[in-house]
Amino acid sequence: MGTVTQESAKPPRAPAVTRRAVLDAATRLIEQQGVAGLSMRKLAAELGVAVTSIYWHVGNREALLDELVQEMVHGLDTLPASGTTPTARVLSLALELRRVLRAHPHLIGLVNERGLTPAMFLPSQRALVAEISAAGLRGTRAAETVRALQYHVIGFILVERHTDRSPEQHPSAEELWLAEPSADGDLAEALATPVDADRLFARSTEALVRSLLADQ
Amino acid sequence: MGTVTQESAKPPRAPAVTRRAVLDAATRLIEQQGVAGLSMRKLAAELGVAVTSIYWHVGNREALLDELVQEMVHGLDTLPASGTTPTARVLSLALELRRVLRAHPHLIGLVNERGLTPAMFLPSQRALVAEISAAGLRGTRAAETVRALQYHVIGFILVERHTDRSPEQHPSAEELWLAEPSADGDLAEALATPVDADRLFARSTEALVRSLLADQ
DNA sequence: TCCCGGGTGTAACAGTGTTACAGAAGGCTG
DNA sequence: CAGCCTTCTGTAACACTGTTACACCCGGGA
């Protein structure tokens, strides 16, 4: 009934491929070509094995992806917060969350498709709750603040992920803004510059945190 | 070389299907079953026609999606801003942008994949630029503000789109927070409540706008 | 020796996007 | 009228996808 561990003490014939090897090869394929580039036959060919062996070890394409997602979710169990002021600590949490998620850009969509988003973000949510409580917010107000921050961070990462994957923006923002007649030349020029995502994220998140943590 | 309009004055044989009909049927299919549910054969069957006719009229699956995306992009040419204070006007723009984008949840991902995000958001970006200039921001600072707001709004909508499509969150946020021992009972209870996206968006966007438009 | 079960392979199913090719049907020119 | 040309449709195939029914091999236990 449970999963079969080939690493235990009774491999009768030294299997040509292990569950672990399948998962690793799948990860490699996904990182190279995206989730759509993962096909069971490619996977089998990569491992020098027939397709059915893949199915024997992981059951399914869906089950395979489930497993990878589970591993990722377990991978971000504890997020550290650094800094002294509440604003700084919340900001550091957000930066850390983005850093971790950006390491697995392909899987973030899969997590949602599997309905694991709450489970995935529970640790970070817990950490956020702690910091925001420490900042003095309580009850509904605190909950709204936590959620606002989570939506902001996850949303930013989703936008990033999308723009990363579209290699050439055909009428690029640069062309569009250079052709634009404008009163504020510096502004147009700035908008014609590629986005510095790190900086933009840090700035906008800090602005949001400041505003959310301030009494209004 | 250009596109052929069947509506012009020379239809020799009253075609069994028009380009327009294909686009409409595709839109219907996508709205019902998502982009992945759009197959050329389904489309042909829906219209009572062989697959090749579809290809003749729209060329390609990719070209078909391109066309739908183009239509959507043209659909949000002008966004109205209402209100008196800069903050209120920017906020109203954000709310309007979200409202329009939520009407086409399936296409928003396609727009990015096609690298049309800059073109798509140029109108809203222009409107934002006008409001933010009116608020007194200039140059690089203004550009960063515009981008921060766009990332926030688009990101929020992407998160919404994801959570909308995952029907059952298996360990739901509710269960998780009800099982959580917590010092702030009200907070845990609030986090166990489903998200009110409208309210959350309005609140968080307003917080962000306030902070971005304030001198720091 | 026989059997059982873990692990693998062959070959097929239905479904996908796409296309080479054969037509049908009307308008135009000879 | 014949012939051709453009527009539009259909048949059938290609390569690819996920998935599975089935046969097979081979080592260990009885």
Give an overview in words.
Two copies of one chain form a homodimer. Chain A is mainly alpha-helical and 216 residues long. Chain A folds into two domains: 1-59, Homeodomain-like (Arc Repressor Mutant, subunit A, Orthogonal Bundle), CATH 1.10.10; 74-213, Tetracycline Repressor, domain 2 (Orthogonal Bundle). In chain A, 67% of the residues lie in helices and 0% in strands. Chain A contains eleven helices and no strands. Chain A has helices at 19-33, 40-47, 51-58, 61-75, 86-102, 107-113, 117-134, 139-165, 173-178, 185-191, 197-213. In chain A, helix 2 (40-47) packs across helix 3, helix 7 crosses helix 8 and helix 8 runs antiparallel to helix 11 (197-213). The first copy, chain A, is flat, with a radius of gyration of 22 Å. The N and C termini of chain A lie far apart (56 Å). The model of chain A is unreliable at 1-11 (pLDDT under 50). At the A-B interface, helix 6, helix 7, helix 8, helix 10 and helix 11 of A face helix 6, helix 7, helix 8, helix 10 and helix 11 of B. Chain B binds a DNA duplex (30 and 30 nucleotides) through residues 4, 6, 10-13, 15-17, 39-41, 49-53, 55-57, 60-61.
* Strand and helix order of chain A: HHHHHHHHHHH
Broad shape of chain A: flat
Largest interface, Cβ cutoff 8 Å: A-B, 63 and 63 residues
Relevant CATH superfamily of the largest domain in chain A: Tetracycline Repressor, domain 2
Number of helices of chain A: 11
Helix/strand/pairing category of chain A: mainly alpha
Tell me roughly what share of residues is in helical segments of chain A: 55-70%
| Terminal residue distance of chain A | 56 Å
Low-confidence stretches of chain A: 1-11
Sheet of most strands of chain A = none
Oligomer: homodimer
Strand content of chain A: under 5%
CATH class of the largest domain in chain A: Mainly Alpha
The whole-number mean of residue pLDDT values of chain A reads: 81
Count of discrete domains of chain A: 2
Can you tell me the CATH architecture of the largest domain in chain A? Orthogonal Bundle
Number of strands of chain A: 0
Q: Radius of gyration of chain A in whole Å, from Cα? A: 22 Å
Question: Can you tell me the CATH topology of the largest domain in chain A?
Answer: Tetracycline Repressor, domain 2
